[in-house]
Write a structure and sequence with these properties.
- The structure is a single chain.
- The protein has 2 domains: 73 residues, Translation initiation factor 3 (IF-3), N-terminal domain (Ubiquitin-like (UB roll), Roll); 93 residues, Translation initiation factor 3 (IF-3), C-terminal domain (Translation Initiation Factor IF3, 2-Layer Sandwich), CATH 3.30.110.
- Helix content is 39%, strand content 27%.
- The chain is built from 5 helices and 8 strands, in the order ββαββαβαβαββα.
- The strands form 2 sheets. It has a 4-stranded mixed β-sheet with strand order 2-1-4-3.
- β5, α3 and β6 form a beta-alpha-beta unit.
- The radius of gyration is 30 Å and the shape is rod-shaped.
Length: 199
């Protein structure tokens, strides 16, 4: 296989900023360790100032003309950036979609049990995909599934909201219910207050 001309063997394109002697431009706009503007200086003077401060010269804006470099502790900078990225990942809310399958002619007890599971999922902040499975002649009566999904949406009430209306999908009818943010917050607060009362 022929390697395209624009790829040189052994060359790795790095996303890391260039530091110290890897910065190969005649002059840079320099920012001091405390964020003060030093101005446009030659690369040799910038490197000398960084060495005198016992810090690194880091290219922070390579596309600027001339490039902007800052005198800083690069190891500490990388560590803090990794900590921020980890913190941002930790704070991300991961949405989980649970699935509940029902039959159009479901028994009342089974319906109540499945409804209880759906309510629990919604209180935990998860979305629920409710699937009505039609078999045989039931496929000619999709209104049974539609009515069951409407009844379920009414029974759940303010705990959830319909994100995707009932939709026929081959032999199945599907509806997606998302948690109501206000009710989820209240449901999560209730156990804490109940614990304090018991004490």
């Amino acid at each position: 296989m022929r390697v395209p001309d624009h790829f040189e063997e052994g060359v790795v394109i790095s996303v890391e900023p260039r530091i110290n002697d890897r910065i190969r431009v005649p002059e840079v706009r320099l920012v001091g360790p405390e964020g003060e503007q030093i101005g446009i200086v030659s690369i040799d003077d910038a490197l000398r100032l960084a060495v005198e401060a016992d810090l690194d010269l880091v290219e922070v804006a390579p596309t600027a003309r001339p490039p902007v470099c800052k005198i800083m502790d690069y190891g500490k900078f990388k560590y803090e950036a990794a900590q921020k990225a980890r913190e941002a990942r930790k704070n991300q809310v991961q949405t989980v979609i649970k699935e509940m399958k029902l039959r159009p002619k479901i028994d009342q007890h089974d319906y109540d049990t499945k409804k209880g599971h759906i309510e629990r999922f919604l209180k935990q902040g998860d979305k629920v995909k409710v699937t009505i499975m039609f078999r045989g002649r039931e496929q000619s009566r999709p209104e049974l599934g539609y009515r069951l999904l409407q009844k379920l949406a009414e029974d759940i009430g303010e705990l959830g909201q319909i994100e995707s209306a009932p939709l026929q999908d081959g032999r199945n009818m599907v509806m997606v219910i998302g948690p109501s943010r206000k009710k989820v917050a209240e449901a999560r607060r209730k156990p804490e207050t109940a614990d304090t009362v018991n004490e």
